[in-house]
Amino acid sequence: MKMLEARTLFLFLLHTLFCTNSGLQTHCEIRDSRIYVCIDGIPSDPCGYTYIIVNFTSYHESYTIANETFLGDTWLEVERFEITKSPAIHTSIEIRPHAFTKLEKLQHLSLHLFTSVVNIFNDSFTGLISLRTLDLTEWQRFDDQLLHDMFSSNESFPKLQTLLLTNSGIQSTVFNFDDVLLEQLFVRPLKALYLQAIKANIDLYVFSRVCGSLEYVNVSESILRIYDRERVQYAGVCDHLKVLDVSGMHVKSMYCFTNVYENAHFTVNESHLKNFSPIRNVENVTYDRLCTFTSSVSFISITADVNITLHVKSIRSRYNSFDIFDVALSMNNCPLEQIDLAENGISFLSPKFVSQCTRITEVNLAGNRLSKMSEYNTTQFIQLFMLLSNLSVINLAGNGLNVLHEGLFSSNKMLAYLDLSQNEFKVFALSLTNLKNLALLSLSSNNLNLKYATTRLYLTEYLNNSKSNKLMLADNPFACYDCDDLEGIKWLVQNMKSIVDSDSVHCSADSAKVQLVKNETVTELEDICKRPFRQKMITIILCCSSFLVLILSLYLAKKSFQRYNQHRKQKQDECRLLHEAELEKETVSVLKQEQHANTFAVFLSFSGNDKDFVKTFIFESLNEKLKSRVGTDRDLVFFSEIHMEFGKLTNVIKDGLRKCKSMLFILSDSSCRPDNDNWCIFEFNTAMELNIPVTLMVKEYVNESTMHPDIRKYFKNNSRIMWTKDETGTYQLESSWDVVCSAILRSTTDNTM
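Given the sequence above, the corresponding structure tokens read:
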């Protein structure tokens, strides 16, 4: 940094001492340590700078640019030279023959002369042997004749690659790209042609013959007339032309779609390309804002067979007011890799539109109205990307979406970036675990509220797919003024490293205050959550303080008071044990009664994976022990293989549970996962609904992360009976069957009493 400052200071001193260019009106200064900017005159010596800008800001009657203008030897090293002026300043400029001969290394020349009157000669620009770019943008007095004069000599710009005529000429100016001008232009190795916002006549026959070096053409916002438009044959093809931008272009007699088109079939073959032969090798096409006078266009039940060879890899079509786009294309060897239909207001897009273009990797549908399709044409919406298995980028921003349906991205295993910003999601409830390559998910500018556990669950699930996964969450209306917001703000802070735009994630502390989410925000919310508790504690302390003197005076009675408490606790324990014994006695009495002959003490719930274990180690032992405790010969353990009746399985399970006074839930590492044992989970949830007590019995180690969320919660909050394996690999019950029977008989419900 110090070396850069020293160099800048040295250049400033050098400029001050030896390079003042102190003409009557010219004033020069250094910009960004590399650009030499002069006002109202070309400096005689650029002082070693290779980037020169001359800006006319005051009125000059006339100005001459000649070979003598560039006196200093350092002009030989200049690579970029720009002449510009304020639009309101009128001046006359004459460029003499061989004016730029000394600028041997000049690669970029810009003449932004606006309303200036310029007089040039056929050889004014000879000698620019290294020039690659000629920029004539915003030269309003530039006309067709000046363009012809500039390129009349083959010694002018012999290595020119880029020509810019953007917004040049006045409203009535028409540039005639006839055979003479086209042949003059393409003597040079032109690669890029910028013809935006002009009027032009183009002879496509000649153009097709001479355009061999051209790679890029931009005619956006221009008004074009094509010579000999009806010719069938062209002289050639622009072999290297790969990029074409025709956005907002107007062509004489151009046909525009209007209103509604429906129930039609088209076949496109080679004969339809006759007017486009010169540009048939184009790979990237942009056609925004065509037919801008059209309010909206709908295509309903349109099919098209495309029997031609195309090379187009990227298509962009924005601001064309498409509404319903129910078009199905049939095309073999479709070359498309990118398609951009953003900002069209599309409310329906057929899944068959580009379904055969399986090479597509990027789709941009931002700024449309696909929420209507999601709501009213749900099946087609889910199928929208189903056949595009190579997609790596999907942009659905700004479509008014508030829900995403399961299966929407089920086939897009290669998806790496998903943009869902600027929609209306309040809750995000779509599993993305199948998208293993998804590295960036944008949910910026939605209505997300992280106090909903569902949103946190699915976003956490996505982030856990890979440590490198990132989120974008800026401009969502997160709140941080209520205790209910604490979990959501905690989640944000814990995952800040995975949030790309974390510097723009804010929350509303109240109606007027917005703050950046950070660690202090969590502390503030925790403080808010503790306020009721603190207030309660203060009340308690105030109440207790009035008894302080009494407590001190009764210090000698402390031990008696403690003994009293111990005695009371002992009594309470005795009462509890007596109550449990009475409850067990009452349960045993009920189970003995004949009217309850179909009542079971316990319902065995287990996964099909543990059937042999339950049958071998639990059912017989538990059933015999319970029969012994109750004093009956009938089965007291409901075992589905023996006691379940025939009928609809859900009803049979419920009926079986209603016959039981409790449930013994056998939990193992292979049972009751969310993805493979729905009947086990159904039995558990039904027991919860019927208020049937559930006792957990755990078979060895169980991984909590694989449990169903409801079972995991119950597992964390309740005690359990454990099975382990001894040294010989035999299962052993850590408790006794007497303890198990007591737990069952004392935790029963009265649903059968």
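Confidence is low (pLDDT under 50) at residues 1-5, 7-18, 20-24. Try to locate this feature in the token string yourself.
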